[in-house]
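Query structure, 232 tokens:
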């Protein structure tokens, strides 16, 4: 575990330094995980540490296909399993697995392999995202804006809400007897519109509650993420 923490610390410092010297855009890290998966806790911990950085948007999407083994993950949604399957088809993968990290919607990596995660996140931080995105929250609503940008293709505008952290005691399944802490737990995932970049994006949607807000613009068909922003 100490070796893992050292790797993760090096990853965080590396990505922070890269972001300071490259484009000022976030890196979106989606972790497909499950409370029923014994290989997932190191990846869950890694995501928590990544999510402390301002330039990384960490999102934990709990899938439901581990529920059969004896413990139902209360954070899991069939929609997240569907999203993971969509990525598998997009990437040409034959199967899905946990823990899997998808970075900027462009590449995937086994989520409990720190060195591989380091390389992928750093590469995406250096590359940046093609479109700047701005969010502004007023009482009861969220304003979303982005400049026109040609050649993007058709994209989905996605609203995400997440719970920062929650601890769970797990009596059954592969992690039986453990109390685990999860972070950046996605609780809402809504497609709120389409955009093709030919005209500036300007939208306003109702929001409520105090949980963090993330907006993603992602090329249709589980393509790369083109823009991302967060309000904590």
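Result returned for the query:
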């Amino acid at each position: 575990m100490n070796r893992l923490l050292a790797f993760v610390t090096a990853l965080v410092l590396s990505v922070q330094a890269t972001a300071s010297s490259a484009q000022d855009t976030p890196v979106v890290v989606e972790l497909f995980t499950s409370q029923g998966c014994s290989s997932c806790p190191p990846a869950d911990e890694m995501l928590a540490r990544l999510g402390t950085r301002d330039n990384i948007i960490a999102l934990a999407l709990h899938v439901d296909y581990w529920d059969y083994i004896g413990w139902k993950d209360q954070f899991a949604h069939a929609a997240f399993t569907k999203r993971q399957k969509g990525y598998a088809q997009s990437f040409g993968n034959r199967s899905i697995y946990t823990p899997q990290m998808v970075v900027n919607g462009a590449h995937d990596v086994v989520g409990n392999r720190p060195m591989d995660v380091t390389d992928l996140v750093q590469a995406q931080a250096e590359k940046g995202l093609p479109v700047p995105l701005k969010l502004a929250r007023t009482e009861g609503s969220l304003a979303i804006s982005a400049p026109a940008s040609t050649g993007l293709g058709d994209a989905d505008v996605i609203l995400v809400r997440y719970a920062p952290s929650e601890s769970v005691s797990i009596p059954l399944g592969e992690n039986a007897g453990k109390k685990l802490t999860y972070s950046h737990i996605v609780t809402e995932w809504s497609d709120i519109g389409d955009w093709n970049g030919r005209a500036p994006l300007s939208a306003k949607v109702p929001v409520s509650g105090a949980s963090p807000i993330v907006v993603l613009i992602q090329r249709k068909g589980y393509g790369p993420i083109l823009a991302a922003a967060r309000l904590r």
